Each structure stands twice: as structure tokens, then as C-alpha cells.
Amino acid sequence: MEEDGTEYQQVSEVVVGKERTKFIIHTKVFRARSTFFKSALSTSWNLDQNPVEFVDVDPGHFSKYLTVAYGGTPNPNFEEDQRFLELSDIYILADRLGECTCANLVMDAIIEHVQSPAHDVPDWSTTKSILTDLPTDSCMHRLMVDAYCATTSTCQEVRDDAQDETASKFLVAVAQVYRTREAEVSNDDTIKHAFTRDIRHLDRVRYHEHNESGPKDDCVGCKPPKEDG
Ligand SMILES: [Zn+2]
Where is this region: Disordered (predicted)? Predict the structure, then answer.
């Protein structure tokens, strides 16, 4: 095999959704970024290979994921009232592909959105639609629990839905966070800021996932802010 740069031009086909929408991706780039593609495209660049298929993925989500993965920045053109859902769709797909760099980038945008004073945290039906297929130890679940803990009103919607499995697990997690924070508050008054929506820069590490394709050492979001020179 020659390492002359032509391998960077090798492409692979990805077939997405029931409509079998075809996408072309750069094999080498996505093998390096995603643990999923690393194995799925492992022998691709000099062999005729069957396309990777994602029957249960929305082609629109995959297209948005590619935009973020290639562009290196979350798409700012989402409608404001759709922004949380749009970002979450990309996040869940990137997470599933083991594409930490993209997932963390999108997670930072979701954090910014959730803590923005311009709007409330997403309502429960929206939140539930995102969390239903995610494990309770996922970063997304953790973020939404923390966001709900920082508001006073929204949890009532979850309580009204308490017979639902996702809602009951969510309420247990909210209660655990409250218990932990109450203990902290009784020890140190300054920790009260934890009840506000201010998710400080350093706290982002709580919502990041890292792996060999997206190591923590390379993560801009996990680096502490430069304060002293
Ligand atoms: Zn990180």
C-alpha cells in the first residue's frame, strides 16, 4: 500500500433509512473519528465492500451529523424552537457511532442552549422523546436531570407522567441530585450556585464522553479556561 495521500480520497457508501438514502463519506477520515466506522470500514479502501447500512436512522439526522462532522461546528441555522431537538438528534447519532469529538461539540452547544436565559429548559414531552432510548448513565440524561434540578416548575410535568418508566427513572435521578446538593449546601453555603442554571465551563467535563478516537487530552471543551497567563 502506498501512503501517498490517495487513501484520503477513498470513499465509502453509507445507506440510511427505509428510503435507502445514499451518502458518501471519506473512509479514512471517519475511520479515525468513529469507533463504529473504524470497524465497519476496516477493510474498505482497497476492496469492493458492501455499503454500511443504517435502516433505523433518519437520513435527515445523518445528513446533519455529516454537516457537523465535516464542518467542525454545530449548525447555527436551526430554528430557535427546534434547536434543542435538532442538536439532540445529531448528538444521539454521534454518540451511537462512537464519534466523541462530534458528540462533545454538539453537547457543548446543547449545554449553551439549555442554560441560556432566553428560553426555558425543554418541556417534558420533548425531553422524554430524547431520553427514552438512552441509558440513565448517559451524558444526555445527566445534563437534563441537572437542568431540571435548576428550575422550579418543570418537574411537575414529570411527576404528572410518573407512571411512565422514563419519567420514573428521571424522577429518581432528580431526587438523588437534590439529596447530594442539599448535603453540600449544608456544608458550604457557596455551593448554592449549583441550583442555578449556570453550568460553569469546567462542569462541561461532566457531560463529555471520550474514547480512543476522541481522547480527553485533545478536547477543547474539557480544557480549563485560560485565566492566568
Ligand atoms: Zn471533553
Answer: 209-229
